[in-house]
Amino acid sequence: MLKNYSICFISYIFLFSYSILNFIMMFYFIINDLVYFLEWEIVTLNSVNVVMTILLDWMSLLFMMFVCMISSVVIYYSKSYMSSEMNLNRFIILVLLFVFSMILLIISPNLISILLGWDGLGLVSYCLVIYYQNLKSFNAGMLTVMTNRIGDVFILMSISWMLNYGSWNYIFYLEFMKNDFSMKIIGSMVILAAMTKSAQIPFSSWLPAAMAAPTPVSALVHSSTLVTAGVYLLIRFNLLLVDMLFLKFLLLLSILTMFMAGVSANYEFDLKKIIALSTLSQLGLMMSILSMGFPNLAFFHLLTHAMFKAMLFMCAGVIIHMMNDIQDIRYMGGVTIFIPITSLCLNVSNMALCGIPFLAGFYSKDLILEMVSFSNLNWLVFFFYYVSTGLTVYYTFRLIMYTMIMDYNLFSIYNLYDEDYTMIKSMLVLLFMSIISGSFLSWVIFSFPYMIYLPFNMKMMVIYVTFLGGLLGYLISNMNIYSVNKFFMTYNLSSFLCLMWFMPNLSTYGVTYNFLNLGQNLMKSIDLGWSEMYSGQGMSNILKNYSIFYNIFQMNNLKIYLFSFVLWMLLMLIMIL
Q1: Contact 115/156 with Cβ under 8 angstroms?
Q2: Gyration radius from the chain CA atoms
Q3: What is the pLDDT of residue 453?
Q4: For labelling alongside 318, which of 373, 437, 525, 530 has CA 20 to 30 A away?
């Protein structure tokens, strides 16, 4: 156990120190306006060079700083959360592999090394989702890894298309080759790959399923690693994608994802799934603002979202531990009495998610919504943006009502313990960052402050939908949501909304049922039917019949033997003559 704790501590110290180093380098790069493109020649054989390329600029260094800081805090948190785990060092090594895959993806200007990081994320996420080794985990792991494999295939296809250019360093071709037909095809494949990794419609069903992983993994996956990889890749490819028609299609899919996740979260009762659907909603927001041609805004929201979302999952982990591993929010209530500091962290992260002024989420979310109001878009996009923002506040208030304000609902006799200090320390780091990171990043990323002039009601629209969403969340939490559905006679509608527009069923049974059925019929008719009759089983039947026939000769009397001998002699005589 001491070895396990030493691995935790060394990993935590190393990643935290590395994040501070990235922070210092990032400031140096921004002040001096530097971009370093490093090439490391691994193997040279005649005219063949195998070169590893690394791109260091303010964006990659800032993202690495956030990834390393969150992962160091998550590993420190895991020391307590996973303390009953026999193989804690195996878990920590898997988390470290996950983080290193993400770092490789961040610093790669080359599609080959991006594929290594991309595939590394997919493989290690599978190992982490199936970590608890039960049927639900295995199913969720298969759904996760198979959906991500689609993205891997698109990256591989874009690698093969880039053979037209003689190099896989896409960073060289983004600007002056963007009107080339091959580059447009590569751009389309990259968009499709990013949609699978960032779980946009129709690839959304794996994200809530991946909640089968341990909570520290969920905190890491949903904040800064796996799901943000697709957004980051599109931010890097943004110069190529700006004028593409496919990007407008992505805008439609991403706002639908945002809306669908917001509605589904209001029908969900699993604590971790509500937070996962919240991540899906925020990913839709990032992808949609990216589709509109604002990559810096998408990056800004990606980083602010990472901080409060990691803390939200950590608080959820503490509550689940306290509630005897029950995740249903209907059994919770009044947890503020037992875990006040965790409740404080949960409330701050929830408010940051809602975009309450002067917390981290406000700076990015408010700016995004004002840019949407300022842009020349149709009313449908405008409607989905503001309704989805209202739904975010709606499910957040519903979550607060069920977990904190309503009565405790689990046991009549209970003795709930207070917080663990290791978990509290790790959450307080993220609490501090959730408060200051929004203003800090707005100074770092944007060289001048954005001032967006809008009419008063348009400017206050964000506040209106926030208050309306909060009020609805409060009212609906006080009455059973199913009684509301009964009143409106919308059972079928509620099941449709609750099950993410039937997307999990479509992406599992809808895709696999007919193939499995066909496979079963083929197995019955060919594998166990005709092929058996004409190969193994048929031959064994013939040989068996022959052996029975010869056995009659061998087991019978001398007369049959002599008769057969005479018969053979006659046959031989006829043949000779």
Answers
A1: yes
A2: 31
A3: 82
A4: 437
Instruction: Supply 317's token pair.
Output: 């982990």
Max Cα–Cα distance, the chain, nearest Å = 120
- Please classify residue 289 by burial: count the beta carbons closer than 10 Å to its beta carbon, then call 0-12 exposed, 13-18 middle and 19+ buried: buried
Q: Is the pLDDT of residue 118 over 80?
A: yes
- Going from N- to C-terminal start, the domains of the chain cover 244-488, 547-577
Q: What is the pTM of this model?
A: 0.84
CA gap 334, 402 in Å, rounded: 8
Residue 278's closest CA among 383, 177, 361, 196? 361
Judge residue 173's burial from the number of C-beta atoms within 10 Å of its C-beta, 0-12 exposed, 13-18 middle, 19 or more buried.
buried
Return d(Cα 151, Cα 158) in angstroms, integer: 11
Let me know: does 198 contact 257? Beta carbons within 8 Å: no
Length of the chain: 577
The residue with greater pLDDT, 479 or 400, is 400
Amino acid (one-letter) located at 59: M
Phi/psi at 472 (5° precision):
-65, -40
**Cα–Cα distance for residue pair 306/439, rounded to 1 Å:** 15
CA dist list (Å): 446 to 36, 217, 258, 300, 451: 21, 31, 26, 9, 12
Rounded distance, CA 316 to CA 462, Å? 27
Per the rule left: phi > 0, alpha: psi between -120 and 50, beta: everything else, 53 is beta
Query: What mean pLDDT is predicted for residues 134-159?
Result: 87
pLDDT band of residue 489 (cuts 50, 70, 90) is very low
Contact between residue 234 and residue 191 where contact means Cβ atoms under 8 Å apart: yes
Does 21 have pLDDT greater than 90? yes
Between CA 348 and CA 344 the distance in angstroms is 6
Token pair belonging to 422: 């290791």
Helix axes 228-236, 271-291, angle to 10 degrees: 10
Sign of CA dihedral 259, 210, 229, 76: positive
3-class DSSP state of 36: strand
Residue 31 contacts by C-beta under 8 Å, 6 or more apart in sequence?
A: none
According to DSSP, residue 131 is labeled T
Average pLDDT over all residues of the chain: 83
Give the torsion sign (CA, 288, 294, 300, 303): positive
Helix and strand numbers, DSSP H then E, in the chain: 26, 2
Residues 194-214 pLDDT 10s: 989 888 888 888 888 888 888
